[in-house]
Write a structure and sequence with these properties.
Elements lengths: L7 E5 L6 H5 L6 H4 L2 H6 L6 E5 L9 H7 L2 E4 L5 E2 L18 E3 L1 H7 L18 E6 L3 H14 L3 H4 L5 H13 L3 E6 L11 H13 L2 E4 L2 H7 L2 H7 L3 H15 L7 E6 L2 E8 L5 E12 L6 E12 L2 E4 L3 E2 L10 E2 L2 E2 L5 E5 L11 E5 L2 H4 L8 H16 L12 H8 L6 H11 L18 H7 L7
Parallel strand pairs: 1-2, 3-18, 5-13, 6-7, 6-13, 7-9, 8-9
Antiparallel strand pairs: 4-14, 10-11, 11-12, 15-16, 17-18
Helix pairs in contact: 6-8, 6-9, 9-12
Bound molecules: flavin-adenine dinucleotide.
């Protein structure tokens, strides 16, 4: 690995780099998106090539990789949304009504992921937009914040790099609505909240300046304070701070002039109340209570039920990784089973290849499962690299497999966007005649064909 003969190719199914930093992290969190500049720096090294717009498992298979590379690092994230399970006594009509989606639909769309489409926004008979987000993590807060910023005309949405299409549509639907009511549902209590204080505080601050109210029921705060949860609270400073803020929000709950955010606890979805037009009018929920020992408390149905008025339901219940065909034996529960990043060996090398197979490694979400922030991936990737270094040390480190990945793509008629091509796309996206306001970093290109064409790629059919 330390050898100058080592060469690295980065293959991504999108013509644009940066994974979820570009297509997941919220557009008003530019400070987080800045992490992409560290990533860009590595491409100034001539030993690293970028193949954007090439999907492993579709355009190329593992056999192709094994003809080219001694080591393959699986770092393709978790692109599948978890399937929402409704309680056992969900209604007999098992079809999903319109306007019910995994939160990823909204996230992909507002972030301009190619081939994404908007969720359908319908208003209630009273003319309100009632959005229910199931799951209480930071992705839920992102979705809530983007919709609420559009509703209260927060300038930081205008200056963000949310796409023009999403910006205009969100502004249009929220201005048409009498009220925009966003509810975030948690199955357990306040002390088991999965969001972090920074993201929660941003919403609290919004409620203090604009036409937005924020509510937490005091009865649910009280119910959250059972003996086991108070035990969980002891000695954990971040949770203490979050719990204090939740208390402050609850004590100062008020109705907003235009928009409301309500964080609800002890509710678990069990079915839908449907509208005649095929949409949803409410999410039927079981009321829950906490059961079990501290740090392992679970939500248990109480037998009570509650309907939460909803004209749009977003399930923000996590992401799940998918296996690449041929690696099933190493895959379990949405991620690769690994030791320090080592997954296993496969294939026997191809023409000009050495004996033995290619070594497979994993890093990021597909290694650990879909959790952790961008920063969590740094020590995780270091661990994987250290394993690779140890495995290849003493073997000369040189390129043993002779096939060039580029040749395989050319032969197969697959074209790609290289790093220079991406820089062209980047330049166009940053052009001042494309942006809404001067402060907007870029207006993303969302059309796959356009991206491929500008980047010099474009698949040959
Ligand atoms: C909605 C959302 C918001 C988030 N917000 C924040 C935040 O504010 N701050 C923060 O620190 N973290 C945030 N995160 C977490 C952060 O995005 C992840 O920790 C990080 O992106 C995971 O990196 P990864 O490389 O494992 O996966 P990814 O970032 O998903 O990268 C995987 C890459 O693999 C490519 N790929 C997938 N399949 C294939 C294939 N078959 N062939 C070729 N390429 C493929 C994809 O196109 C993608 O570019 C957020 C996550 C989500 C989902």
């Amino acid at each position: 690995m330390h050898s100058h003969a080592s060469a690295f190719d980065v293959i991504d199914s999108l013509p644009t780099p940066f994974g979820l930093i570009r297509s997941g992290v919220a557009p008003d969190h530019q400070d987080v998106k800045n992490a992409s500049s560290d990533f860009s720096q590595i491409f100034s090294d001539s030993r690293i090539r970028y193949f954007g717009g090439v999907t492993v498992g579709e355009d190329v298979g593992l056999e192709d990789l094994e003809e080219c590379y001694d080591a393959v690092v699986l770092s393709y994230g978790c692109e599948g949304g978890t399937v929402m399970s409704l309680g056992d006594d969900s209604d007999s009509d098992s079809s999903t009504p319109d306007c019910v989606y995994h939160a990823r639909k909204l996230v992909d769309w507002y972030n301009g992921r190619p081939n994404s489409s908007p969720p359908e926004f319908r208003l209630t008979e009273e003319g309100d937009l009632n959005v229910t987000i199931v799951g209480g993590g930071n992705v839920s807060l992102d979705c809530a914040r983007i919709i609420l910023k559009a509703a209260v005309e927060d300038q930081s949405l205008t200056t963000s790099d949310v796409t023009n299409e999403a910006y205009n549509r969100l502004k249009e639907i929220t201005s048409k609505a009498n009220k925009v009511n966003v509810r975030i549902l948690n199955r357990r209590g306040g002390m088991q909240s999965a969001f972090t204080i920074k993201e929660f505080r941003d919403l609290f601050k919004m409620s203090k300046v604009g036409k937005m109210g924020m509510k937490i029921l005091s009865s649910e705060v009280e119910k959250s304070e059972n003996e086991e949860s108070l035990e969980e609270l002891k000695g954990t400073r971040p949770l203490k701070r979050l719990w204090k803020l939740i208390g402050d929000v609850s004590a100062n709950s008020e109705e907003g002039e235009k928009a409301n955010l309500e964080v609800r606890y002890f509710l678990s979805p069990k079915g839908y109340e449907r509208r005649d037009d095929g949409g949803v009018s409410s999410l039927k929920c079981d009321v829950t209570k906490l059961e079990g020992a501290a740090f392992g408390q679970r939500a248990k149905k109480t037998g009570e039920e509650e309907d939460v008025e909803s004209s749009l339901v977003l399930y923000s219940t996590g992401y799940k990784g998918k296996v690449l065909e041929g690696l099933e034996e190493f895959f379990e529960d949405g991620k690769y089973v690994n030791e320090g990043g080592r997954v296993g060996v496969r294939g026997g090398g191809g023409e000009g290849g050495s004996e033995g197979g290619s070594r497979y490694y994993a890093s990021g979400w597909i290694k650990r499962g879909a959790s952790g922030i961008v920063g969590t991936n740094i020590p995780d990737a270091k661990e994987t690299v250290m394993s690779m270094v140890a495995d290849f040390e003493g073997e000369g480190g040189g390129v043993r497999r002779r096939k060039n990945f580029e040749e395989i793509l050319r032969k197969r008629g697959v074209r790609w966007v290289d790093w220079k091509g991406w820089k062209k796309v980047d330049e166009v996206e940053k052009r001042r005649d494309r942006v809404r306001v001067e402060e907007q970093v870029r207006e993303k290109i969302v059309d796959l064909e356009e991206l491929m064409t500008i980047g010099g790629g474009g698949k040959v059919e």
